[in-house]
Amino acid sequence: MGLPWNFAPLHGDRVHLDLPRPDDLDALFAIQSDPEVCRYLLYEPRSREKVQEVLARDSAGTRLAEAGDFVQPAIRDAEGRLIGTIYFKITSTEDATAEIGWLLAPSAQGHGYAREAAALMLDLAFGELGLHRVYAELDPRNAASVALCLRLGMRHEAHFREHMWFKGAWADTGIYAVLASEWRG
């Protein structure tokens, strides 16, 4: 396995991933304070102060070495504007497994940016990092994220009914995953 790994920017045809910067605050706040964006996330719309804390935390996450380590790079468009973030966390070194997630500005949704960003991370995961399995854990009502998982070649592995107390009600959890052999195939 290729751990430890120190963050290096990743470049695609239309997006690139790099560490969040202090000047991303306005764009990130616009995304993370939007009630519709936060609808299926584990948190409610965030205050500017909370987003500033998250930005500082995420910009410091630069190394993947052991279970629990994560990076959350900025997804930038061709002009370098922050249009979202992508979450990538090592969940087990013994099992060579990681979790992936994404967050995109409403104006950037539906244009393939999240797919390209996730594919960059999956290429890294199954290439340089040598991982075996990457999964996404999401609210199955989030049709856009479910569709993205399927476009990435992830399979639906599990559906946990009323799995967590979520924003005042019981909510289901869906698990989608892809193996290294499937990604390469």
Which homologous superfamily in CATH is the superfamily?
Answer: Gcn5-related N-acetyltransferase (GNAT)
Q: SSE order, as H and E? A: EEEHHHEEEEEHEHEEH
Number of helices: 6
Number of strands: 11
CA-based gyration radius: 16 Å
Which oligomeric form is depicted?
Answer: single chain
Mean pLDDT reading: 96
Shape estimate: globular
The structural domain count equals 1
Proportion of strand residues: 25-35%
Report how far apart the termini are: 20 Å
Low-confidence stretches: none
Largest sheet: 9 strands, mixed
CATH topology: Aminopeptidase
Give the helix level as a range of percent.
25-40%
Specify the CATH architecture: 3-Layer(aba) Sandwich
Domain N-acetyltransferase: 15-182
Protein name: GNAT family protein
Pfam families: Acetyltransf_3
Structural commentary:
The chain contains six helices and eleven strands. The model has no long low-confidence stretch (mean pLDDT 96). Helix 1 (25-32) crosses helix 3 (48-60). The protein has helices at residues 25-32, 35-38, 48-60, 113-126, 143-151, 180-184, and strands at residues 5-6, 10-11, 16-18, 63-64, 70-71, 74-76, 82-92, 97-104, 133-138, 155-166, 169-179. It is α+β, with helices and mostly antiparallel strands and 185 residues long. It has a single domain (14-184), classed as Aminopeptidase (3-Layer(aba) Sandwich), CATH 3.40.630.30. Helices cover 29% and strands 34% of the residues. The longest helix has 14 residues, at 113-126. Residues 15-182 form the N-acetyltransferase domain. InterPro entries: Acyl_CoA_acyltransferase (IPR016181), GNAT_dom (IPR000182), Ribosomal_N-acetyltransferase (IPR051908). It holds the Pfam family Acetyltransf_3. This is GNAT family protein.
